[in-house]
Amino acid sequence: MSNESNEIAKFQDPGLPEHVHRKTDVDPKAADRAERQVAILFILSALSTVLAIYSYIFIPDDKFFFLPIMGDTNAHQLFLGLGMAFALLFIGLGLVHWAKTLMPDTEVIAERHDFRSPDEDREDFVRTVKEQAAAAGLGRRSLIKRTLGLALGVSALTPLVLLRDLGPLPKKKLEKTSWKAGTRLVTDPGDRPIRPEDLEVGAVAQVLPELVPGKVRHLSDIAKDAVLLIRLRPNEFQLNAERLSWTHDGIIAFSKICSHMGCAVALYEQQTKHLLCPCHQSTFDVTRAAKVIFGPAARPLPQLAITVDADGFLVAQQPFNEPVGPSYWERSS
Amino acid sequence: MKKAERIGGNVASYVDDRTGAAKWLRKNLTKVFPDHWSFMLGEIVLYSFIILLLSGTFLTFWFDPSQREVVYEGSYEPLENIKMSAAYASTLHISFDVRGGLLMRQIHHWAALIFMAGMIAHLMRVFFTGAFRKPREANWLIGIGLVTLGIVEGFLGYSLPDDLLSGTGIRIAEAIIQALPVVGSYLAFFAFGGAFPGEAFIPRIFTVHVLLLPGIFLALITIHLMLVWYQKHTQYPGPGRTEKNVVGYPLMPIYMAKAGGFFFIVFGVTAFLGAVASINPIWLYGPYNPGQISAGSQPDFYMGWLDGLVRMAPPIETHAFGHTISWNILIPGLIIPGILFTLMALYPFIEAWMTGDKREHHLLERPRNNPNRTAIGAMSLAFILVVLINGGNDIIATHFALTINQIMWFTRIGVIVIPPLTFVITKRICLSLQRADREKVLHGRETGRLVMLPHGEFIEVHEELTPAQKFTLTQHEQPPALEVPREDANGVLNPQGLKGKLRARFSQAHVEQVPAPTESEAKALESGHH
Predict the structure, then answer these.
(1) Quick check: bond before B197 cis, omega within 30?
(2) pTM of this prediction?
(3) Interface confidence (ipTM) of the complex
(4) Beta carbons of B317 and A298 less than 8 Å apart
(5) Are the C-beta atoms of A236 and A258 separated by less than 8 Å?
(6) Average pLDDT of chain A?
(7) Cβ contacts (< 8 Å) between B30 and chain A: which residues?
(8) What is the pLDDT of residues A62-84, one digit of tens each?
(9) What is the tally of helices (H) and strands (E) in chain A?
């Protein structure tokens, strides 16, 4: 350290230690042995390649056999893979063994060069840049500089504009689902309409809106329309009058799309009457209109008002009264 | 002259006649690389990248990146006649009807995990040994870029099969885009070509996954390696090793053989994993359907910490003036990761500012000899570990018979309490280790041999260290803290203001050290003995 007095001396660098010869350096027999070991490793690699190709051609890919820990194992895949793995592994081990036993292992010292150029070179560089810039008139002709800047800046807009057709504008699509007043609830899968008596107390069912004839159901429809039906005893609800009127005979319907990040809220705990989203563990209390009781979700799951139609099938009373799924900037509540 | 020599000579002559490369090649073929196991971490990353390119190319020959609906008619019976996307169906085809297809899929996935884990380990090595210091800041920044893109690339990769698990991951990504203030829903509709999930996303991310990002990776890795080559590798301190030299083995032949051999070993281990260890069995998850989900939905580990952050976020949303801001998504999903990665990228510059050190460094530091940096690193790791635990809270809950709520509350509090505690403890441990080094240098190594002296006293025999060991343990610098001038030449008090005070405070913390023993001290001790 520079700020210490001369009396304090640090431990001196004793320099690079003496090179210690390996057994293979001094004993020709050991060197020959090492050569044979390397050769054996390379031969093992070649044999493993044979195993891989043999497995590819001759082991049928529907043969399974039982192995401890791994369970039922596909022989074709296993031996093909092992053959390939060991073919590579033995080449690597052979090369490293060769390097470690037979190649020269004397440490070499190389000097580092300073990265900083000599001062005159640096000055020369700065001078050259200045001269060339001055020659081009960069400093004087500011009109050129500014208009070039403008042109370059504006030209970057075209690629952005070109990306416009990546997709349509959202418009009101995030707000609307396919549910309308009188839309029947149908099972998913199966597309069968449901009567209240199909659901026992404590049961859950995933439902979708009945398809309008001639229309097909896309995944993007399911991503907004999926609804979970749950049947409780009517006296288990703790709802206000309006929300209670949205239930039918103990059956309550919620959007299955999590109000947090849009995962399917599919885990229903029958004992506690909680709905849990497996993505981030937001937990909703079914008896209290899917109020959030735990986790990162900030809003209850939207409730779908349901009733029965003249034929006794469950239908929606009205569309969802709020957007389903995760929040977004234009969402008003 | 042998035939091989003659042919070699002709080739060399042909190349040199046209490029004049003989001198350059000769110099670089004997280029010296220092040897240490921790320098192989970066190599693992490079090799797994090559494995990813090879196995990935194989997979593209059969993979159909399309969300067109098809009916499955392949040989995996449980999914027969089920409607699914062409992407999922072709992934099943690769897994069950292309010989070696499943092996390649598993090699590709394992290589991706090794690629990410290797990058993180390499980053930790570079951080804790101070290898990022001048002149290597640019390579640190490239490295941060590679880690960030690696997370994105991995996520896009496991999203491609369009299975139920990965589709759920895309759903979450869409929700994060949608949560962006002002532009969120527009960006989401542009990215997905309409409402989620649409039919555009898989083809688009396929192009990004197999063309755009690998191209960027290739460019960044090339620059990264060229800089390593040009600036020469750092080395650990030791006898004969200085800031002005590099001690190691020449590229040809020993380093070529070792590095080349190591490539085959990494490839072999990855292939072994692909052969025996099942990973991402997409046929068990089923095709994606936004109305379905499986319990225990987990991302790959390098996304797990993000998921853990999102899980522990408090349920806060702002509704005002007809607009919604989802803090419960923005803070854990964008703001905290943004801050973390920015701080990580800027750390070399922050440390240089704290220490005022503008010199070049080619000798690495042992982590204990820079307690403040080591403690900062440990603190960051503790943070990531706590949120990663929360990212697996459902799995931990089922395996250890805990409730989700217990784990969530533990990590919610832990994420604030544990990192600072880790900082303090790590720093103390580093200082204790320095003290132990000091003891060892001044009093020798404890041998455990007890000797009874003639007058009955028992002593433990201490063995003196070799000069090389003494030098290695004491060679590190211990610069004093920065002095902030109390007043400048004109008598203005505290000229640097709050910034100066802050800097002095940081500098103070950074130089807290146990003084390294010197030869003078050792001599003084010796003469004082008996």
Answers:
(1) yes
(2) 0.94
(3) 0.92
(4) yes
(5) no
(6) 92
(7) 108
(8) 888 998 888 888 999 999 999 99
(9) 8, 14
If one counts every other C-beta atom within 10 angstroms of the C-beta of residue B432, the result is 13
Look at residue A163 and tell me if it is in a domain. no
For residue B89, give the DSSP letter.
Answer: H
For residue B279, give the 3-state DSSP assignment: coil
Q: Which residues contact B492 (CB under 8 A, 6 or more apart)?
A: none
Q: Which residue of B has its CA nearest to A17?
A: B239
- Contact between A293 and A275 under an 8 Å Cβ cutoff? The reply is no
**Long-range pairs for A40-47: beta carbons < 8 A, 24 or more residues apart:** A41/A90, A41/A91, A41/A93, A41/A94, A41/A97, A42/A90, A42/A91, A42/A94, A44/A86, A44/A90, A45/A86, A45/A87, A45/A88, A45/A89, A45/A90, A45/A91, A45/A94, A46/A87
Overall domain count for chain A: 2
Residue A295, domain extent: 185-316
Please determine, for residue A2, whether its predicted confidence score (pLDDT) is greater than 70: no
**Residue A14 has what DSSP assignment?**
-
Lowest mean pLDDT among A1-5, A147-151, B188-192, B230-234: A1-5
For residue A48, the chain B residue with the least C-alpha distance is: B268
- Among chain A residues, the shortest Cα distance to B390 is held by A280
Helix (H) or strand (E) segment spanning residue B342: helix B336-355
Instruction: Tell me the one-letter amino acid at A50.
Output: V
Q: Best of A69, A265, A328, A330 to disrupt the B interface by mutation (most B CBs within 10 Å)?
A: A328
Task: Please name the amino acid found at residue B459.
Answer: I
Do the beta carbons of residue B328 and residue B113 sit within 8 Å?
Answer: no
pLDDT at A7: 61
Average pLDDT of the segment spanning B350-379: 94
